[in-house]
Please model this.
Amino acid sequence: MASGALPALLVLVLRIGIPESPSWLAARGRAAEAAEVRRRYLGQSGVTAEEAGAAAAGQPPAARYRELFARGQAARTWFGVIFYSAQVLPYFAIYTFMSQILGTLHISDADTQNLVLNLALLLGRVIGLWPVQRMGRRPFTIGTFANLTACLAAMAAFSGSSGWVLMVPFLVYTFVMAGASNITQVYPPELFPTALRGSGVGFLNGTSRVASAIGTFVLPVSLSRLGVGWSMGWMALVLLLGTVVSLAWAPETRDTLTAEDWHH
Model:
């Protein structure tokens, strides 16, 4: 797990020098800096410091966290919390302890299966980029949740079968989950208006990390005490919750970004 520090360090270095959001700068009276960022990085050479300052002056006051749960926004916020958390809880738990799960399945060549699963993760992530946009956010989220629920439910129902039989739904789950995880980089920003976007996305990311930590802590204990069948069963229930909440609350946001959103 410590090896994850290396790419994180690389990203930290790459982020050095990245400019601040021009709308954030303008809203805090730094109109000249905002105009320079728009000119240099966004190609908006016609925007002057005076225009940026005037636009900032006309913006509403800075949003507060309680507005995430105001009427008209609360359902989207809670949907984002539950959908994001329900997806990442089994995701982080399963792939952190994938070797232990394969050992529980009594697979003779676990190294080969581990490699196959990691290839499925890679392919799923790349191929999954296409349906996110083509299908729309709502059907993609509902469809992937339903598929993932069925896969883990199958592993729970047939937990007494041979490891090779269980590998089929596990492989499908791995491929679909990798593709489904793409939506977590797209959906959350679209659930919030411009004034709430930074706070909203940060809140969803924070709560989802709590869920992933819980899953990563509970799964090895569950595997040891309950076995792979019951462990897959309760994680299938988590995904079922995500399916039901998505059916009830998931909005379609693919084509709802406005000119103001793109400007910001």
In short: The mean pLDDT is 85. The radius of gyration is 22 Å. The longest helix spans residues 194-225.
